[in-house]
Specification:
Blueprint: E1 2-8, H1 15-24, H2 30-39, E2 45-49, E3 52-53, E4 56-57, E5 60-64, E6 71-72, H3 73-81, H4 87-108, E7 116-117, H5 123-138, E8 143-146, E9 149-158, E10 161-165, H6 168-173, E11 179-185, H7 191-200, E12 203-204, E13 211-219, E14 230-238, E15 247-255, H8 263-272, E16 277-284, E17 290-298, H9 303-313, E18 320-325, E19 330-338, E20 341-350, E21 353-359, H10 361-371, H11 375-388, H12 391-397
Parallel strand pairs: 1-8, 8-12, 9-11
Antiparallel strand pairs: 1-14, 2-5, 3-4, 6-7, 9-10, 13-14, 15-17, 15-18, 16-17, 19-20, 20-21
Helix pairs in contact: 1-5, 1-7, 2-5, 3-4, 4-5, 4-7, 5-7, 8-9, 10-11
């Protein structure tokens, strides 16, 4: 069985609202206190209450802290990186925080190392991000799906001055995410909430098929005139793998005037745009010119985005497209702990049986850099840890 969580952002999404919904859905209360202790935070209290909002009982989380904002992203990251959080929670939390930092750097036009988190530089941000992944882990969530994000409008007063809502950093984080405009004024989704859900979500859209087990409701502080200020999380079990359309699109372009040094940049841009795979093949073009065929494999829903990416980043004047069918293994991701660092392991399943096990190379390379050990040793240890653990038995059972 696959444990699935569905986030329904009825009135928007903030970090504390997501914490409240997860607690209301059955996550242990002590897990938040453990996060505060693991981060080494002093003077921080987490208060959990159960108000009634718009006739609905909900949970509400207030993180009371004496430390305000204004810390640099580097200082905040160092606290998380040096914390006593479990390797898996720490890895996911750092990923979300790095997304947040990159978004802030982009909108303010500064180097990520120079980012100062004015409103987001407090201990409450650390608790929101680390707490969310700790509670998701405690609930043993295998897959998270999020509904379309509602976006209101308005102007807010921040340390930088007046900014439009949604905040520019929020908009940067939500690139590629389904959103819907609503009449509700003000900030409905915060940068912290966006960073968490973008990192945690495996898919976006409608509620997936599941046997519903529990529902949690988290409430915000403000009252909206046209909708309850809540986020719901529905948790259930799915005995089937998510439906996967095995149709793919193959986009190709022949170029003979693209500077070779720029070819990897084109492929990287396509990968960021949602490509499943990218590659090049040397070819001979008209007039005997040496060239390259750029090939990009993707899902049909990403066809236009991938085509525009090829047109924008390469020198081609046109892109041809083919629709193909392919056989695919079911896939699962497990994480193993290698010396206090999380390494993801990809598992390929055929009719429920494990046929492929492969550590994620980028994770192995990152651990190698952090530990000063060869990548091949990290890769071998991750493979051995995954093979020796119950994870493969669990994958077979699923």
């Amino acid at each position: 069985m696959t444990r699935v969580a569905y986030v329904d952002p009825v009135g928007g999404l903030a970090g504390d609202m997501l914490l409240a919904a997860l607690l209301d859905a059955g996550a242990p209360r002590h897990a938040l206190d453990d996060v505060v202790a693991a981060l080494g935070l002093r003077g921080v209290d987490v208060d959990v209450s159960h108000p009634v909002r718009d006739g609905l009982r909900a949970a509400h989380v207030e993180v009371r802290t004496g430390a305000g904002g204004g810390r640099t992203a580097e200082v905040m990251r160092a606290i998380m990186a040096g914390s006593g959080l479990t390797a898996i929670v720490r890895t996911h939390a750092l990923e979300a925080f790095d997304r947040l930092t990159a978004a802030e750097a982009a909108v303010h036009g500064v180097d990520p190392r120079e980012v100062v988190l004015h409103e987001l530089g407090g201990d409450d941000t650390l608790v929101d991000i680390c707490g969310a992944f700790s509670l998701l882990h405690a609930l043993e969530i295998d897959r998270l799906v999020c509904g379309p994000i509602p976006l209101g409008r308005g102007i807010g007063e921040m340390d930088h001055g007046q900014i439009p809502f949604p905040a520019p950093a929020t908009m940067a984080l939500l690139a590629g995410v389904p959103v819907v405009g609503v009449d509700t004024p003000g900030e409905l989704i915060t940068p912290t909430g966006a960073a968490i859900v973008v990192t945690a979500a495996d898919a976006w859209g409608e509620l997936p098929a599941m046997v519903l087990r529990t529902t949690g409701t988290g409430a915000g502080t403000r009252a909206h005139a046209d909708r309850p200020n809540i986020v719901r999380i529905m948790i259930g079990d799915s005995s089937d793998q998510p439906h996967k359309d095995t149709t793919v699109v193959l986009l190709q372009a022949n170029v003979d005037d693209l500077v070779p040094e720029l070819v990897p940049d084109v492929l990287d841009a396509c990968t960021s745009a949602g490509a499943i795979d990218v590659w090049t093949v040397p070819i001979q073009m008209k007039k005997g010119r040496p060239g390259a065929m750029l090939s990009v494999l993707g899902r049909p829903e990403h066809e236009r985005t991938l085509a525009e990416t090829l047109l924008r980043h390469s020198s081609t004047l046109g892109v041809r497209v083919q629709r193909l069918e392919r056989y695919e293994l079911d896939r699962a991701i497990r994480e193993v702990d290698i010396g206090g660092h999380a390494v993801r392991v990809k598992i390929g399943l055929l009719e429920g049986g494990v046929v492929n096990v492969a550590p994620e190379h980028d994770d192995c390379a990152a651990v190698a850099v952090a530990t000063g050990r060869p990548v091949k040793q990290i890769w071998a240890e991750a493979l051995a840890a995954a093979t020796a653990s119950q994870d493969l038995d669990d994958a077979n059972a699923r």
